[in-house]
Amino acid sequence: MLNYGILNYTRTASQSPARARIARGFRSVAAALLAFAIGAAAQTGATRISVAGDVQSALLVKRIVPVYPPLARAAGVEGTVRLQVLIARDGSVQRVDTLSGHPMLNRHASDAVSQWKYKPTLSNGEPVEVSTIVEIVFKK
Fold first, then answer.
1. Integer Cα distance of 48 and 85 in angstroms
2. Where do the domains of the chain lie, and which CATH numbers do they carry?
3. What pLDDT shows up at residue 20?
4. What percent of the chain has pLDDT over 70?
5. Pairing mode, if any, of strands 48-50 and 126-138?
6. CA-to-CA dists, residue 56 to 18, 31, 73, 94, angstroms
7. CA angle 14, 20, 22 (to 5 degrees)
8. pLDDT for position 108
9. Whole-angstrom Cα distance, residue 57 to residue 5?
């Protein structure tokens, strides 16, 4: 099983209506925080902003699921891979750097995240680069 933490907020048949309301509320808060970060960047004239991963996930439009390496699964390797991600002005992932994680899992997480696509982040109507942290959890 792969777990994306707060990135997994698609309502499933088994999810309660209360949990779905909480997820919608979270997305509203994430959008407000993103708007605040963009406003602060606009005041300073920044062309790149740093945004928390859970906030930036609200703009994720294409997510590729990382492959759990069969050798790592067989060896019982689990863990979280932390990635520093630079999102280009067009919403594509420009660079992925591994911050921490098990060596057997890092490349698979990085390869998948490098294919993700975000809605462009705008500041004063102009697209800006975004630096964020993404965590991928590999769990058997």
1. 12
2. 2-138 (3.30.2420.10)
3. 66
4. 64
5. parallel
6. 23, 8, 29, 15
7. 135
8. 97
9. 11
As a residue count, the chain comes to 140
Place of tokens 């965590």: 135
- What is the DSSP code string of 27-80? HHHHHHHHHHHHHHHHHHT-SEEE--HHHHGGGEEE-PPPP--HHHHHTT--EE
Per-residue model confidence as pLDDT tens digits over 98-129 = 999 999 999 999 999 999 999 998 888 889 99
For 42-93, what is each residue's pLDDT tens digit? 454 557 677 766 667 777 899 999 999 999 999 999 999 999 999 999 999 9
Q: What is the H or E stretch that residue 86 is in? A: strand 79-87
Spatial contact of 135 and 80, defined as CB atoms under 8 Å apart? yes
- 119-to-13, 50, 69, 129 alpha-carbon distances in Å: 27, 15, 29, 11
Token duo for residue 86: 């630079």
Rounded to whole angstroms, how far apart are CA atoms 77 and 68? 10
pLDDT the model gives residue 14:
54
Give CA–CA dist 68/3, Å, rounded.
11
